[in-house]
Amino acid sequence: MRNIIEKMSKGTKIDRNSPFPIYLQLREIIKEIVTDSNFTHRYIPKEEELCQIYQVSRDSVAKAISGLVEEGRLYRIKRKGTFINQPEKKENFNSVIDQIGIVWPITNFWDTAISSMNSLARENGYNAKISSYEWHNLDDELKLIEEFKNTSKGITIYPNCMGSDRGFIKKLQETGFPFVLIDLYFPNNSVNCVTADNFNGAFGAVTYLLNHGRKRIVYLGGPVYLSSNQDRMKGYESALKKKNICVDKNLIFSRQLSMKNEDVEILIKKLIKKNKPEAVFCGEHGFANMCFKTANEYSLSIPKDMAIIAFDSIPGDEFLNPPLSVVEQPQEEIGKQAMQLLINSIEGKQKKPKKIFLNTKLIIRESCGKA
Question: Which domains, ranges and CATH numbers included, belong to the chain?
Fold first, then answer.
């Protein structure tokens, strides 16, 4: 085992600045080591030793090892330890021929979607490789797509936040190269896409607020040129219209990408102070924290004076004071559906482009008055 420990100590380290969760990074690092045939059937260091080698938590190590056991890279023997399995001959894990690319923005932390894509790719005999780019940097995104186009059988792409890649995406489609877009889509382009049902997610959240007596509702949204934000705003407006409430443009704020967070926060404070809303629907999760700070500054009670619901969810929402109500996106299912759609396209089982919209889940907590 000394050789394995030495290789781990001198090998790839955890990147603390990476957008990918520690356990996923660790799993890929260990995976690279255990594919060495010289280590087959040798046992790996104990979890506490791996914690010391990589300076990570026990939970991260446990999740990484469990993932490798599920993939068949490792196997456990009770009271003896965890051992390196012999790869099946039918599968070449390092072959670019069976590689699938995942192009993902640094600012997006959908680790469950990434994990589900990676697992499903492995189950079907493909090696998933993840590469990230600055979400606003078109050149970085297109460079990754071009690289994967030359080394992979297909790509899943989370498009950039500018929407400026649609021309390139259209050209990519014309080549017949298999790809699937995740979360964002281009309404007039018929391409493979998997996303949450943003319209109905927003419609349901705003309808809930209206049904509980909140008539004056502020909408805080992201850049309007993104399909997800367009659909959420349409859902907000449709819910109001269904209750015969006129859409007041003074209650709608759409962030521009060039805006700094501190400037956005100032504008939101002014909007809330001036309009005194009974509720705020945050089309992007980050706005919720700004609303909490604004409520505290103006001595507004949540939810008595102002209810809050945010689109999307992150760990810890339930521990805020008060706990935040959210529209939860099915991240894991989005990852699975996107990867399955891509594999079907690669293998010729999916001939025509397909758009898949998955249901969201409204989780009501105390921030809007728990039912």
Answer: 2-84 (1.10.10.10), 96-196+331-358 (3.40.50.2300), 198-329+362-368 (3.40.50.2300)
